[in-house]
Amino acid sequence: MAFIVPTGISKVTSVAPFKDCFDAQNVAGKDMTGPNVPKIEFGLPGKTGEVTWGFYGANTVVKVSEMVMCLAFYDGGKNLNDWIVIGTHQLQEYLLEFDLSTSTFSFSDSLLLHYTNCSTSPS
């Protein structure tokens, strides 16, 4: 996965196990979806065409120190069996539905966009 550093954000030395890290002081605060960093979207095949799944700062970066934030994705190497692996950090504050009878998968917007989260959302 290639990471393009947004204007105004400086890359810094990697912090294991993360590859892409940057100066946390360049991030302009937080909003309801976490650190104010660019949204990352994945395009997934859907019944009526491509569906995008958006991830925000709370799910895309990890603050490893007061000075450093890292992109919360691992480099899986060159010989991957899977196209994409979405980990538990990315899945926080999303509702997921797996329908085994139709082999479909659906997901909500980030609950943070609705001023709630999984621990306070009604079941």
Automatic annotation (TrEMBL):
Coiled-coil residues are none
Q: Residues in domain Xylanase inhibitor C-terminal? A: 8-108
One biological process term from GO is: proteolysis
Q: Name one Pfam family in it.
A: TAXi_C
Output the superkingdom of the source species. Eukaryota
Q: Which GO terms describe its molecular function?
A: aspartic-type endopeptidase activity
Q: Which InterPro entries match?
A: Aspartic_peptidase_A1, Peptidase_aspartic_dom_sf, TAXi_C
**Protein name, UniProt field:** Xylanase inhibitor C-terminal domain-containing protein
